[in-house]
Structure formats: C-alpha cells, structure tokens
Amino acid sequence: MTITSSKSVLKDQVNNQGKPAKSKGGAPQKKIKRASGIRVRLTAAERFLIESKARDAGMRISDWFRSAALKAKVAARMNAEDRRILHLLAGMANNLNQLTKQANTTGIISIAIKCGYLLSQIDQTLKYLNRHDGQDS
Which of 82, 92, 102, 120 has the fewest beta carbons under 10 Å from its own? Predict the structure, then answer.
C-alpha cells in the first residue's frame, strides 16, 4: 500500500512543479455560452428560403438567423396618431362620396368647390401617412 500511495504523491508533486495538467480532451470551452433559445415555426417554403440564404452566405442556419434578427430594424405599423388620422381620412372619404352624389343630382357649382377642397385635404393626409415610404424598415 505504501508503494501506491507514494506513486500518487509523486504524480501530485510533478503536477505542482509548474507543469500544466494534462488536457481531458474534447472541444475547447466557448467564451460565450448560449443557453437560451427561441422556437420559431416556419412553413416549408420559409424554411427552404432561410436555408438557401444561409447556404449562400456560407453560414449555419442558426448563425444566419441570429445575425438577421440582430440587424433587423422593425418599425411599428401604426401608432395612435396614425390611427386617428386614418379614421379622419375615412370620414373625409365618406363626406366626399356624399358631396359627389349631391353634385351629380343637383349640379351645384359650390359643391364642386367643396369637393376640390376636400380632395386637397385627403391628399395632404395621405402624404402624411406615407411619410415613412422609402425608408428601411
């Protein structure tokens, strides 16, 4: 027994003399460990499209997906102000329809002027709602 215990003491002494301990093998530890995941359901066509984009980029699907999600810029479709303006636009369209019917039945010139004014208001409102067109989203 003393022989085996002295051998283990010798091993400990060799390792404690500044030499690195022997590696256990396997892949090296990653600096950043990703422990959390998100599950995404895709149609077959969506999965094929994502796989082909990842393949074209020379990346794994998860790396491509992560990169695409982190770089994506998403803007809210409509805020409260935009919804209010859209509601006003619907009211203006209703008024325009009523004025057009009245102008067709009575033929009054003043109604044509009111229609022109209302059309310019609708045009301004549409330009306001479309102010984000042409920007990346």
Answer: 120
